[in-house]
Amino acid sequence: MNASRTTTVQANHLSQADESKPGFRTKTISTRLTLDELAEVELAAERAGKPVSEWLREMALTAARERPSNPIELLLAEVLAMRYTLLSLFHAGAQATVEGRLLLPESILKIRDRTDAKKLEQARKMLADFAARPAEDRGDARVKSIDAPANRLTVELQDGTECTYDPRRQQGVSVFREEIRSFSEGDRIQFTAPANDFKVANRELGIIESIGADGQLRLKMDGGCAVELTPNSHVHLDYGYAVTSHSSQGQTADRVLIHVDTELGAKDLLNSRMAYVAVSRGAHDAQIFTNDAATLGQVLSRDVSHAPAIQQNPVSQAIEQPIEQRPAHEHEISQGFGIGM
User: Which end of the chain has fewer CB atoms within 10 angstroms, the N or the C?
Assistant: First the structure.
């Protein structure tokens, strides 16, 4: 028969001011523990650096206030705990080796206790951040507020609901700036975002055929399809007279005007590939306009093609080839330069 003893746990004493308030009172909670169980409790309280009564009180309140966990939370908590434990053990073991000492069992137990205390909270936070991400099909949203210290954005969706999320955890979000455009019949337009309900791709071009009294636009897309929309419900429209070199790929025009600003902040965008794509869009004529004709040739000669990581060449061929110095290419491009094709 196991020996047992009674351990009495009493709530912390309240101040006289608190005791005088209505609704404040204390109760004594008693439980029976075996000597071995009591030793485990005393050891746990000692590791936490607290008296047994205070440690028991905190553990009881934590268990009482803990909401039921779902299986996903429990599984994620165990995965996070395993990761944190392994990383902590590797770090503690390496530090002990450098200091020329052994990793004591007490240190391992402290790592385990810290992990158990935080694993469920971290799992719930991760799941909450994941659930707060905007869904892919929730459409446009407007930024309502920015919490820079916490790195959080609060946006208002089209249905009026608000969503707060961490931009580092959300991919596939495009940022747009609102500007006023005045359209007339016959204007060239382009979509600045995909319109899936009309099966129109991003940067697809068209012409405004008519504008109704209610503002509804009837568009004739270059692909041949007809589209009718209201600008208030489809705001991703812009003039289609100028497009970027990237979005012009696959398109052809009789004549093209190319604007190249050599002082552009994103200088990496100016290269030989951009020049080839832009110039080859014109079927009969292409003209380049720039702010600096003297350096334009050098800027547009920048090669951004990637060489293969492994390239096998016969050794004998490499030895037999003579080494010769080739003259540098000369570029002579003037402002307003035209290329006839």
Answer: N
Please provide residue 241's backbone torsions phi and psi, each rounded to the nearest 5 degrees: -85, -20
Place of tokens 């747009």: 176
Cross-strand bridge partners of residue 228? 218
How many angstroms from the chain centroid is the CA of residue 56?
Answer: 43
Phi–psi pair at 29, nearest 5 degrees: -115, 130
pTM of the model: 0.45
Task: Convert 228-261 to b/e letters by CB count within 10 Å (16 or more is b).
Answer: ebeeeebebbbebeebebeebeeeeeeebebebe
Q: How many CA atoms lie within 13 A of 164 on its CB side?
A: 8
Q: Which residues of the chain have pLDDT under 70?
A: 1-26, 65-69, 128-139, 170-172, 265-266, 305-341
Residue 167's pLDDT is what? 80
Q: Where are the beta strands (DSSP E) in the chain?
A: 4-10, 28-34, 141-147, 152-157, 162-165, 188-191, 205-211, 217-221, 226-229, 237-239, 253-260, 282-290, 337-340
Identify whether the C-beta of residue 163 lies closer than 8 Å to the C-beta of residue 141: yes
Residue-level pLDDT at 173: 75
CA torsion angle 198 204 210 215 (round to 10): 60
CA 299 to chain centre: 33
3-state SS assignment for residue 78? helix
The DSSP 8-state label assigned to residue 101 in this structure reads: -
Cα dist from 316 to 263, 311, 319, 320, whole Å: 46, 15, 5, 6
Q: Which residues contact 66 (CB under 8 A, 6 or more apart)?
A: 120
